[in-house]
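To the wet lab folks,

You asked to see what we're planning to order before we commit. Fair enough. Below is the target structure as tokens, and below that is the sequence we designed to fit it. If anything looks off to you, flag it before the synthesis order goes out.
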């Protein structure tokens, strides 16, 4: 069987387990059974798995191959995985094909290669976890890192999220804050009896529309701070409103709420970013921070990160998003994002990944894992 056919077969099988966030039990069961039958040690934490472990007879540094098992809800266009053609390229269609079952498949294939693991300068461990696509507090990776303390000694974590084949370093931090503009409720026929909280927000929203992106360089890698208003509502119509609440259209609102999302470069910590947000809003609105996650620095000068970048031979860029590399940064483990999936396909209807991207990422990842560096010429096979 050719490499491309093997990868397609593996991905179609992996995509066959359509387990949305919170329902990862079946795919965790199947994956745990697979590796126990192969004689591998398996630790299970909830619906998350740690497969393999540092051998007692070797001092090789541990490299974690990390992926999440859950997907967002499927559509009729991607519920059934299949091979197809798109823009003259062979693609695998299936929910999670790009985000991030394609990455899982190349990680699992490398881990199952006995000769690669025997000859590699690294000890390989698979970390396949649940809950990534949902709320941060239900993401099981933090539980895994707490339950298996030796993971904290890893030399590198490769998070195989979709990166369009780039090596994407670090990640953005994020803040969500509710801005509350206060006025005085009144009848819309006599607005002079009150003060419209909605229109009070106009100058701030206009400023956001005019100037909301800033380039920030960190260790030679360019990230972009982004300020976005993502939701807005008046009382009774917000995210927590009762579904039976009827809109009242003849009231000048005395309150108007805007959800402000700041994504910031890993040049500062959460407290610094929150202080920056509060200073920008000033006294124009009340600020309530409702969610915050730290970023992760690129760590390009870390020797094992540098070795990965040099061996892979792919374009290096910033991760213009938040990923679980931040959780590894919190415990001092160098981490990076690299995977065959297409970022533009994540969560799309009819989600797909090109077969040639799978093959290319598989070969590049093995260059690092085998320690061969530049002595093997890369190419995308037919």
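Sequence we intend to order:
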């Amino acid at each position: 069987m050719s490499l491309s056919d093997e990868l397609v077969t593996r991905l179609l099988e992996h995509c066959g387990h359509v387990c949305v966030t919170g329902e990862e039990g079946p795919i965790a069961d199947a994956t745990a059974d697979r590796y126990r039958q192969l004689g591998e040690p398996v630790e299970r934490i909830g619906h998350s798995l740690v497969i393999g472990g540092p051998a007692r007879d070797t001092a090789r540094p541990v490299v974690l191959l990390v992926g999440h098992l859950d997907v967002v809800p499927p559509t009729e266009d991607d519920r059934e995985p299949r091979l197809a053609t798109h823009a003259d390229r062979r693609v695998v269609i299936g929910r999670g094909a790009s985000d991030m079952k394609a990455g899982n498949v190349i990680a699992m294939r490398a881990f199952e290669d006995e000769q690669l693991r025997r000859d590699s300068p690294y000890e390989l461990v698979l970390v396949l976890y649940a809950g990534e696509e949902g709320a941060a507090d239900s993401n099981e990776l933090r539980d895994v890192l707490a339950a298996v303390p030796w993971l904290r000694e890893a030399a590198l974590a490769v998070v195989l999220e979709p990166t369009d084949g780039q090596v994407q370093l670090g990640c953005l931090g994020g803040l969500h804050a509710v801005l509350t503009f206060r006025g005085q409720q009144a009848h819309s026929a006599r607005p002079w009896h009150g003060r419209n909280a909605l229109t009070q927000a106009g100058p701030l929203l206009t400023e956001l529309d005019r100037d909301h992106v800033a380039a920030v360089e960190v260790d030679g890698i360019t990230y972009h701070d982004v300020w976005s208003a993502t939701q807005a509502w008046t009382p009774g119509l917000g995210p927590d409103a009762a579904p039976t609440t009827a809109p009242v259209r003849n009231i000048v609102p005395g309150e108007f709420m805007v959800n402000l999302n700041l994504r910031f470069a890993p040049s500062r910590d959460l407290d610094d970013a929150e202080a920056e947000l509060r200073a920008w809003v000033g006294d124009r609105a009340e600020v309530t921070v409702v969610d915050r996650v730290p970023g992760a620095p690129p760590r390009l000068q870390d020797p094992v990160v540098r070795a990965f970048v040099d061996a892979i031979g792919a374009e290096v860029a910033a991760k213009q998003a938040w990923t679980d590399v931040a959780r590894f940064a919190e415990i001092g483990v160098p981490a990076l994002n690299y995977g065959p999936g297409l970022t533009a396909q994540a969560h799309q209807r009819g989600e797909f990944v090109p077969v040639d991207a799978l093959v290319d990422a598989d070969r590049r990842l093995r260059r690092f894992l085998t320690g061969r560096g530049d002595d093997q010429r890369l190419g995308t096979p037919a």
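Structural context that might help your review: The first helix runs from residue 3 to 15. The CA atoms of residues 41 and 52 lie 5 Å apart.

Thanks,
Computational group
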